[in-house]
Amino acid sequence: MWNKSANKTAPHPPRAPRCFGCSRPMHLVRRTPRFGGLPDLYTFECRVCGVWHIEEGDAAEDQPADLAAVLAA
């Protein structure tokens, strides 16, 4: 049986973006782990155009969903 809590630390990469030049799906090249609760960085590459894209993964699950509500309090 699969244990849901056993995989909480495993990052879920963001969906591959489309290339800005040719609109093809980009390939995940590298995941850079970060520390201190910061989300990992994901590097994507379009092998046809040579375009690179870097973005953050999802933030930690224990962060509040509505930042505006937290700031207003």
Give a description of the structure.
- The chain is mostly beta strands.
- It is built from 1 helix and 3 strands, in the order βββα.
- The chain has a 3-stranded antiparallel β-sheet, with no helix packed on it.
- β1 and β2 form a beta hairpin.
- The longest helix is centred in the C-terminal third of the chain and has 6 residues.
- The chain is elongated.
- It starts with 26 loop residues before the first strand and ends with a helix.
- About 8% of the residues have low confidence.
Strand content bin = 15-25%
Biggest sheet record = 3 strands, antiparallel
SSE order: EEEH
Shape: elongated
Strand order of the largest sheet: 1-2-3
Helix content: under 10%
User: What is the terminal separation in angstroms?
Assistant: 42 Å
Total number of β-strand segments? 3
Low-confidence stretches: 60-65
**Radius of gyration using CA atoms only:** 16 Å
Average residue pLDDT: 76
Provide keyphrases for this structure:
single chain; about 70 residues; mainly beta; three-stranded antiparallel beta sheet; 3 strands
